[in-house]
Write a structure and sequence with these properties.
The protein has a single domain, classed as NAD(P)-binding Rossmann-like Domain (Rossmann fold, 3-Layer(aba) Sandwich), CATH 3.40.50. The longest helix has 23 residues. Helix 1 crosses helix 8, helix 3 packs parallel to helix 5 and helix 4 runs parallel beside helix 6. It is an alpha/beta fold.
Length: 259
């Protein structure tokens, strides 16, 4: 899809920092007409200022968990700029860190699910109908997490929300393929990337990944765009996730022999 990008519209949520910002910088170099969405207006403006063609970008301060706001902005974007050829769901939150799943409040669960799950659900619901009418190929990229494939021992709402968005994206790809849609889907499950989302947790030593395992947002963005070029569905940034996923799957498969 990224072979024909000049002037085509790309919508990126979570564009105010981290992987979302770096994806915007690299898509800008490809000549795409960018729409940056983030809950923080100042960060949106900063991201736009870092682009090589700031005049070819639009910014929206928006909470992607708000379905009505997403619908309103999506209608405005489609009318004024055209239908997106690329939709990237990068907005996310780690939320508060607690050692026990039962210690989180209902509101904390709702907040995490609102951003991490309903953010992608809302943007797909808003943009997909128009994208399905495009005569050219289009692409939806959902940035989940390696936490969506394995269990964890803390941040239960984060793990639950990422497992949910993995399942949502897998269903989305299956259903689009079933109708022979030209819209391709990529499900990105990054490992440890230095972003604002995990900054507070890193400062207090809540991540156990070795320093050699951490990527910069720019490196993760490069991996993601290479995968989008190949129309790749599952996208991993870290080889170190392989063993953890394999151990998790082996535990599940072993249960079939314990009946």
């Amino acid at each position: 899809m990224l072979e024909q990008t000049e002037g085509r519209v790309a919508v990126v949520t979570g564009a105010g920092s981290g992987i979302g910002r770096e994806l915007c910088r690299q898509l800008d170099k490809l000549g795409m007409r960018l729409v940056l969405m983030d809950i923080d207006a100042a960060r949106v403006d900063e991201s736009i200022s870092l682009l090589g063609r700031p005049g070819a970008a639009s910014g929206y301060a928006i909470d992607v968990s708000d379905q009505e706001a997403v619908d309103r902005v999506a209608a405005e974007i489609t009318t004024e700029l055209g239908t997106p050829a690329l939709l990237v769901n990068s907005a996310g939150s780690l939320g508060p860190i607690s050692p026990h799943a039962w210690e989180y409040t209902r509101q904390e669960w709702q907040d995490l699910l609102g951003v991490n799950l309903f953010g992608p659900v809302n943007t797909v619901r808003a943009f997909l109908p128009a994208m399905r009418q495009l005569a050219e190929p289009a692409h939806i990229c959902v940035i989940a997490s390696g936490a969506g494939l394995i269990p964890g021992n803390r941040t239960a709402p984060y793990y639950a929300s990422k497992h949910a968005v993995v399942a949502f994206t897998e269903n989305l790809e299956i259903e689009l393929n079933a109708e022979r849609s030209p819209i391709r889907v990529s499900l990105v499950c990054p490992g440890a990337v230095r972003t604002n989302i995990n900054l507070a947790a890193r400062k207090v030593g809540k991540f156990n990944s070795p320093s050699s395992d951490w990527l910069e947002p720019e490196e993760a963005a490069e991996v993601i765009l290479r995968a989008v070029r190949r129309d790749q569905f599952y996208v991993f940034t870290h080889d170190s996730l392989r063993d953890r996923v394999a151990q998790y799957q082996q535990r599940i498969l072993a249960a079939f022999d314990q009946r």
